[in-house]
# Entry
Amino acid sequence: MKIPSLIEKITKLKIIDILCIIKCLYFYYMSRFSGHFFRRRWLDFRNGHGLYLAFVMSFANFILIGYNFAIKKAPILNELFNNTLFFALVFIAFYVPVAMIIGYYHRRKQYVIEAEVGLQENWPIVWILRYQIRLIQGDTTSDENKKMLNYLDAILKRHKKEDLLFNDDKNSEK
# Structure
């Protein structure tokens, strides 16, 4: 089949046919990825947007708004900072160290609280820690051991870290 004839056939498709194709592709991908693929892409989008792109844009916007409302309206400051770029450099020179000091304080005082709250909401880690305590005490069953190993092996395989997996033959040799 030649490309021009294929293009002609595609252009003759009706809207209902195109919607049907889109619907079939949607259900194919949803069944194939069980929603994890799209949820992971959504997480990647939010992280890229929120941590990087929106941060840079909002910081630039913050500087420009500060310049327009504080510097341009005050004649004395307008004479001192008559250039937006000069104001931005001076502002960043003072603002960044202050933000770093506040961030340091937050890291030293607040991360402990955030970690505790995060642990309370992170049931897989709690499950693994509970299992480790029971394993040390000798209270685990062979079924629990298999479930835990399968769970952790699946995580390592998903991250392509099969070299970290040990089979029973290697463990018995050590």
Remarks:
- The first helix runs from residue 3 to 11.
- Residues 3-33 form one domain.
